[in-house]
TrEMBL record:
SUPFAM superfamilies: P-loop containing nucleoside triphosphate hydrolases
Cited Pfam families: HSDR_N, SWI2_SNF2, T1R_D3-like
InterPro entries the UniProt entry points to: Helicase_ATP-bd, HsdR_RecA-like_helicase_dom_2, P-loop_NTPase, Restrct_endonuc_type1_HsdR_N, SWI2_SNF2
Protein name (record): Type I restriction endonuclease subunit R
SMART domains: DEXDc
Record carries keyword Phosphoprotein: no
Organism this protein belongs to: Sporolactobacillus shoreae
Gene Ontology molecular functions: ATP binding; DNA binding; type I site-specific deoxyribonuclease activity
């Protein structure tokens, strides 16, 4: 037998693909200049071929020293404090008043033939076994026009290693000061890649280097998880050389995606503002959605709307920046610009500066973007919409004006990018908040509802395309922005699910440590008489009384504080924080008072709380007026900054900071409020931010909601499946039977794999096939929980050892069993990967602790099942007047076009009138009409339609069958009778 695949084989295979399929030049590692991280020969070749006149002029000036001068100047520009390799590549260099371009990007149109010709002259090359220094050797380095732009550390699963080993090497064996790896001036990105997965980083920082997955995702829609799909004919990561490393994609990434992000952070000790930089390289789903959107827009222009359902942790700000920037210069096949303006709509009162910086980081051009902040008026917006500013960023409060203004600008074409709801810096909460226990303040409609109402008023404008980003689309959002699939359901144009984000470790699963508490109490009368009360109002008052009862609050505060101090406080190296979700503003005030009373009584000095609520609050039997500022001691615009500091650990909120608040140090949440639907998801998602390099854990104590209700809220946006089974090993055939019981080994795969293993010579294609067989089994094993995986691997190891013993100690022969032994032997080598860990040195930074669950039900692992289908609103109802009969004709014409049927209008109307007569005789509907509003009556009305259709089926079978089989058409057609039948039955 031959070895399946070595790391060297894999390395050579990639190089062959790059050379044969992508036109790369394979260069010897001896051509690498480690001092400047470049291939001088390829650089000179590019410059001489694309800019001969400039090179001739410069050669007259610098003579034989030209090449060294160019190399030194490029190095100087790339390594200076404000310089970078990215800027040098994008903008070139200028020497002696002569401009030298170091790469050519693809022109937006095909008009400029000279630029197209130069674009094709970009030189891509690859080297293997490149010594970056005497102690650092890279498997592959990619060059653009002689400049090193990417490194690859490759690992082969079949050899018992994975991408994690590659990450470990980058973290521990690669010096960030080495010229090839220097931040900004070295390569743009470093990839850790095995046969199955890819991870990347743009900055090496020793053992604290943070790697991001660069995988396609495994699965479709809301079921998509981490990793990559398996393919019987390709490696799972083949998209890297078939797409990402192609010349067009690399140049597109450099010119239109990669940018340098600068963040400002205030130093608590000095009060000074410090800048931190990061090279932003798109994650795969970000690159994927932008490219797919551009392709669709080029074909459909402004005819379509788009819904992008991306989970928290998806990098939405950068995705919006990339999309806005690309749409400004997007041309169609006829080389015509598609959009005149791009409008970004957000709810932030102060529009996100990060978004503006990201756009300007891609192209710093005067007049490219105009931010309509809180000082701008609707008139300013009108001027911007009518002007030449390509990108206009404005707040959600001005959205009605945007719609109306765009409707009047028919000669211009607009792309409107809608950012989902976030809390503004002033703390205004625009998200939907459900009332609980009859308490709390009435909130304004959420952002989605506002946008929905305004679009309904205006309708889809022919000159406008809308791009709506949300992690939690409502039914109305799906209907307005989604697209019909083959099953007649509305769905998002692109999905990056919560499940995938969790599995890729961008966010945490907040339902993993969830404990519920129950509050028991007894209500007694304090008066002798027994007055009659309105039931609903009485229940609300009792609930509010219980909620704000001092004893109840005191008991809950004790649980919260003691739990935080004993189980949460030491997380994140002692920086952990918590949020308490109260049900009302009065509740927030009283819980904060109880909090202060308790820590004072206990003498605790290591825990302090802030409170967040809007307006002024008075408590019963207390004339004192409370505000957020008076209780905290500073204005509300300073709250987020204060909570970031180590001085405060707990934030008690009432209808604030439940959406859009991004504090990665939040580890625990204490729920004192009824949460439902999207509100529950958005509130609990405040906990899901990771906080590298710490291994953050989350914990929720819920005093109000049931775990089942919370799971139901997450179900449309999140999916996790747990499988269980159990076996134990005994003898060889028993071991075989128990292994087979798991159904992870395909007998046909075993047969085919052995055929290949015993071939005289294994080809590259054979190796891919073998990889597929082992990957298939590996995936099936990893689909089980940790316990079952351990059992299966233990069974297989016992099987191998016992079988080998039998072969040595007896004359045992079983050809089929031997084939299985061969397969399992290789499979064990394939899955038994020694992971050296993440490479973090956490000594002194964190303390190993675990969350304690003392009361109520504890839920360690969520057993959620996705429930992606939502109900859409019932079609509008209208009566059968002459005008509506004309509309009926339009409806039937639409039915004909959608179904291929040709129903005669008169026959159809006659059939519908027959249905109406049947419905008018229904006692059930008569009772419903007399006891309900027309809105509530509609539910029983549409339920009764099916009975009427079945009754009339014998006379109008074809048409009735169509209505019975298509709910949407049925409601459109027969909705015309709702009002008429309701009024008739109500009078009967």
């Amino acid at each position: 037998m031959n070895r399946i695949l070595s790391e060297k084989d894999y390395q050579h295979f990639i190089m062959e693909r790059l050379a044969q399929d992508n036109g790369y030049i394979i260069r010897q590692a001896t051509s690498f200049d480690r001092l400047f991280a470049m291939d001088r020969e390829m650089l000179y070749k590019f410059l001489n071929e694309t800019q001969p006149e400039a090179m001739r002029a410069l050669r007259k000036i610098y003579k034989t020293g030209l090449e060294d001068t160019i190399v030194s100047f490029i190095n100087s520009e790339a390594t200076k404090s404000r310089g970078s390799l990215l800027e040098v590549l994008k903008h070139g260099i200028e020497m002696s008043n002569m401009k030298l371009d170091l790469m050519y990007t693809q022109p937006a149109t095909t008009f400029n033939k000279e630029l197209l010709a130069k674009y094709k002259k970009n030189i891509f090359s690859v080297m293997e076994e490149v010594w970056a220094s005497d102690a650092e050797r890279m498997d592959l380095v990619i060059f653009l026009n002689g400049l090193a732009i990417m490194t690859f550390e490759l690992k082969c699963n079949a050899a018992g290693q994975s991408y994690e080993d590659a990450i470990y090497q980058y973290r521990t064996d690669r010096d960030p000061k080495t010229r090839l790896f220097r931040f900004k001036s070295g390569v743009l990105v470093n990839f850790a890649m095995d046969l199955e997965e890819v991870y990347m980083t743009t900055r090496l920082s020793g053992k604290e280097t943070f790697f991001l997955p660069f995988n396609r995702g495994n699965g479709k829609g809301v079921a998509a998880g981490a990793g990559n799909p398996i393919d019987p004919d390709k490696y799972s990561v083949s998209y890297m050389w078939e797409d990402i490393l192609t010349k067009d994609t690399v140049l597109d990434l450099i010119s239109k995606f990669i940018f340098i992000e600068t963040k400002e952070k205030k130093d608590d000790a000095t009060g000074k503002i410090k800048n931190s930089e990061a090279v932003i390289f798109p994650r795969y789903h970000q690159l994927d959605v932008i490219r797919k959107l551009l392709i669709d827009v080029c074909e459909n222009h402004t005819a379509q709307n788009y819904l992008i359902q991306h989970s928290a942790g998806s990098g939405k700000t950068n995705s919006i920046a990339w999309l806005a920037h690309r749409l400004t210069s997007l041309h169609d096949a006829a080389n015509k610009i598609i959009f005149d303006n791009v409008v970004i709509v957000t709810d932030r009162v102060v529009v996100d500066r990060q978004l503006q910086k990201a756009i300007l980081g891609l192209e710093h051009k005067a007049g490219l973007i105009r931010v309509m902040d809180k000082t701008c008026t609707s008139s300013d917006l009108a001027i911007a919409l009518n002007g030449n500013t390509k990108i206009i960023a404005t707040t959600i409060q001005k959205f009605p004006y945007i719609v109306n203004s765009i409707a009047g600008l028919k000669t211009k074409r607009f792309a409107v990018i809608i950012d989902e709801a976030h809390s503004s810096t002033s703390g205004k909460d625009m998200a939907a908040v459900t009332q609980s226990l009859g308490a709390g303040d009435q909130d304004a409609p959420d952002v989605e509802s506002q946008i929905t109402d305004e679009i309904r008023k205006s309708g889809k404008q022919a000159n406008v395309s809308m791009f709506a980003y949300t992690a939690t689309p409502k039914p109305t959002t799906l209907q307005l922005f989604g697209r019909l699939n083959t099953k007649g359901q509305y769905e998002a144009f692109h999905v990056y699910s919560m499940k995938q984000a969790i599995e890729e470790r961008f966010i945490l699963d907040v339902l993993q440590n969830y404990t519920t508490y129950e509050t028991f109490y007894q209500i007694n009368k304090e008066v002798k008489d027994d007055p009659r009360c309105k039931t609903t109002e009485a229940k609300r008052q009792i609930a509010r009384f219980v909620e704000l009862h001092e004893t109840n609050i005191a008991q809950r505060i004790e649980v919260i504080i003691e739990h935080f101090r004993t189980s949460v406080m030491t997380e994140l190296g002692g920086m952990a924080k918590a949020m308490v979700i109260t049900s009302s503003r009065q509740g927030a005030v009283k819980y904060r008072q109880a909090f202060e009373d308790y820590i004072t009584k206990k003498g605790y000095t290591d825990i302090h709380a802030l409170v967040a609520f809007s307006g002024k609050v008075k408590l019963p039997d207390d004339d004192k007026e409370f505000t957020e500022m008076s209780m905290n001691g500073f204005s509300e615009d300073k709250l987020t900054g204060a909570f970031e500091k180590d001085d405060y650990q707990v934030l008690l909120v009432a209808n604030k900071y439940q959406t859009g608040f991004d504090q990665p140090k939040l580890c625990a949440m204490y729920i004192l409020k009824k949460l439902k639907g999207v509100s529950a998801v958005q509130t609990l998602s405040r906990l899901n931010r990771i906080y590298p390099p710490y291994d953050k854990k989350t914990f929720i104590l819920d005093f109000v909601n049931s775990y089942e209700d919370i799971k139901a809220a997450f179900a449309p946006y999140y999916t996790t499946t747990l499988l269980s089974n159990s076996v134990t090993p005994t003898a060889i055939y028993d071991l075989e039977a128990k292994i087979d019981a798991y159904a992870v080994l395909d007998p046909d795969d075993i047969e085919k794999a052995n055929d290949l293993l015993y071939k005289e010579k294994i080809s590259s294609k054979d190796k891919q096939k073998l990889t597929f067989y082992f990957k298939k089994s590996k995936n099936l094993i990893e689909a089980r929980d940790d316990r079952q995986q351990t059992e299966m691997v233990t069974l297989m190891r016992h099987f191998v050892r016992f079988y080998e013993f039998l072969l040595q100690a007896s004359c045992f022969e079983d050809a089929d069993l031997h084939k299985k032994y061969n397969f399992i032997t290789y499979l064990l080598a394939y899955i038994s990967i020694k992971h050296p860990g993440q490479g973090y040195d956490l000594s002194g930074k964190i303390k190993a602790t675990r969350f304690l669950q003392k009361k109520g039900e504890e839920h360690k692992k969520p057993d959620l099942v996705a429930s992606p289908v939502m109900k859409l609103p019932v079609a509008e109802s209208f009566g059968l007047t002459e005008a509506k009969e004309e509309r009926l004709s339009q409806i039937i014409a639409e039915i004909n076009s959608r179904t291929g049927k040709s129903y005669d209008n008169d026959v159809a109307v006659k059939a519908m009138l027959q249905i109406r007569d049947i419905l008018l005789k229904s006692d059930k509907l008569k009772t419903s009409a007399k006891n309900n509003s027309v809105k509530d009556f509609a539910f029983s009305y549409f339920d009764g339609i099916d009975d009427a259709l079945i009754e009339g089926l014998s006379q109008n079978q074809d048409f009735f069958s169509l209505l019975l089989g298509h709910d949407e058409i049925k409601k459109q057609v027969l909705g015309i009778f709702t009002d008429e039948i309701y009024k008739s039955l109500r009078k009967a």
